[in-house]
Amino acid sequence: MSSAAEQEAVREGRAPGSGLPAQPAPVLNGKARTAPALPVWPGAPTPLGARFRTGPDGVAGTNFALWAGGAESVELCLFDDGGAETRLPLAELTHEIWHGFVPGVRPGQRYGFRVHGRWDPWTGARWNPAKLLLDPYARAVDGDFGLPPEVYGHVRDWPQQQVADTVRDDRDSAPYVPKGVVVHDDDDWSDDRRPKTPWADSVIYELHVRGFTKLHPGIPEELRGTYAGLAHPAAIEHLTSLGVTAVELLPVHQFAHEDHLLRRGMKNYWGYNSIGYFAPHAGYAAAGTTGEQVGEFKRMVRALHTAGIEVILDVVYNHTAEAGELGPMLSLRGIDNRGYYRLQDDARRYADYTGCGNTLHVVQPQVLRLITDSLRYWVTEMGVDGFRFDLAAALARSMHDVDMLSPFLAVIAQDPVLRRVKLIAEPWDVGSGGYQVGAFPPLWTEWNDRYRNAVRDFWRGALPDVRDLGYRLSGSSDLYAWGGRRPYASVNFVTAHDGFTLRDLVSYERKHNEANGEGNRDGTDDNRAWNCGAEGETEDARVRGLRRRQLRNLLTSLLLSTGVPMLVAGDEFGRTQRGNNNAYCQDNEISWIDWGLLDDPGWRALFDLTSRLIALRHAHPVLRRRAFFSGRAHSVDGLRDLAWFTERGAEMTERDWYAPAGTVGMYLSGRDIPGRDARGVPVVDDSFLAVLHAGDRPVSFVLPGPPWAEGYEVVVDTSREEQGEAPGVVHRAGTTVTVPARAVLLLRVVG
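Predicted structure:
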């Protein structure tokens, strides 16, 4: 705890015990404040943000409203094209919201706020009117986030670094920070048709707007790396030919770059460093950044919807780009630090459940309102279809512990807009008790990392037995069969943006992140990877052939599993990051998709197999069940909806589940699918037997006889580079087939 003298010293703007005089009151832009040049009418406290509308007497203008709970006063700052600033006091205060209507201010106007209040970091108060602050509700942002010393609320280079965050910096930040932009919301989406793909029918494709389009030869060069590029027919044609039903976009909220990256001449490529929860990231706009990015994003959504593809946003509401106490002052910190962030008992410090320096205080009503207003905005006004919540466990914390009855989850559950869209949790954070896979309530689906781990371990020969694999392939009922949840609560994935690409997973066993400039210390060491006998790229034909077979095995396992499959862009044709498993700062060819791979017959064959498997999934409801398997016989012949077989052709016993993993047969009955179609007719489908063999030698497998089948037709054989067209070879039930080493056979029941 600090002494009273220390706290008083800091309130006066000097370091405790420094003996230095207090800093003078801030002088902004080198001149005293002048009387406002424009009238400010009272306006309204709602909605928050800047809204262009018709005011009193039919006068057009913009209403500005900012929640700043403990502030003493707020100034609205308007900027002309040359950067000249006009400051207008917002004199009206309603329920801690400062507001005013400025006649004549139209769309395209750039603006920010200066918020006045106490500077007392020892108690969490960090108001500093020298810093121009971004409106948390800004619909568009113009300008780049650099991090010179002027954008920090404290004196960054103070000699006594242990107290540097307590010494106020009075230099004006306005010339160095982006501004919000007034946007006219005039789109009612009446001409849009959302695909509304049921969860069970969904196939998700995770992509980066810039990385997916940057090198695409069919997209005009001026549109590459942008929302307009993703809306281009060449980009959409790839998605539709692959057969995915939704794109999950890495963060497109306005984000900033971390200081340690800028110092190394790098940027945050992934975008998990949000600062504007209503604004599409301006760096992905081809049309312009003074509001044009909003319309461009909407046109992208419309184009994807027209193609039958939903848009899911990866959103980062757990922390902001302002980092810890030594971070910059860009928005929320200067508006009301104590109102927006979780602070420790020592209020100078931030509670950090995210590993990024701060955590939003979601229990606070104004923070919860910010998040839910943002979510509703992206649904109702920007047209998106769902969200994947980064580190969702941090949002579910009440005061400290993760709480599935937390205010955030309760508000989402009852919200008439949000409860109808797709909600995906990354069900963990970095805090104590943060791992919550399987714990989120109904309405939510989850990234299932236990699926990822089990499938990776099986195919690299590291799974001790097949118990866990059985659960993962059949929908993870051990995790999700409670509270009315369904198999599609599990979002199954083998790779994601974070970690190795699929090709790198079978080409590297160790991370190779030297290009990140962090001494290869960043990124996980738990890759569960197998390089097939050589580390990295090789000319060895045997190793290269084995790697491609392993890719076919992994993709086939994923797309035959019960649950919702998620692919990562480029994995379907062999994208590589050269062994980098943490390419968050690589805005270059390491991360951008190399579309030239599709010209290689081998990688084209992998794409063809992937699209064929997705088409097979769409055609067969037995592969996308809406209810968990029962494992029980539903008829007198003893045939069950799900059965497991050893290579002897016998059903697995309890002992077999504990035997070393190597080969497993999974029988899916199309005769016993629960539920009915839209006309009330029972759903009936083909039945399938999938044989997964991870051993390094061929195995003889006896095909189960009646009542399971009279015969089996080979549909997929991953030992083959080219799959050919169905119908394939037909085997009589009871015969023995040879399953090649490290292969999947998918057989359709006939007769």
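Summary: The chain has a mean pLDDT of 93.
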